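job 3f2a | input accepted
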Amino acid sequence: MTLKTYERIWKVEKKFYSIYNLTLPVPIVPIELGFFAGGLALVFVLGAIVPAFKMVPWIIRFGILPYAGTRFLRKKKFDGKNPIKFLADYILFLPQKNKGRELFHSSDKLEQKLCLNWKCSSRNMNP
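job 3f2a | predicted structure (127 res):
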């Protein structure tokens, strides 16, 4: 049995169809634009830190890498969450991970061997 819900009706995704007087060929979601800008910033930082990164052709550095990062961050899910929320939750979890865990201590004492003799057969039932 399938129950239809109309929850998605109220979740309208905002899109940019043009920026100033420039009409875009495809509508862009603002979060994708933010991910692309973050990818560009990361490319600039990597170019400043790693000199060999500047030898990569500019179309790959400033076009394909940020676009691929944007697609990855928008489409990939970790435990049902997008990677940004997953990373934020993981960072919040790190300081608290030892609070809820029981700590087990090992003992230096030698363990005794335990030998069980069940004597369940009919021959061994007589005392």
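job 3f2a | The two ends are 65 Å apart (CA to CA).
job 3f2a | closed
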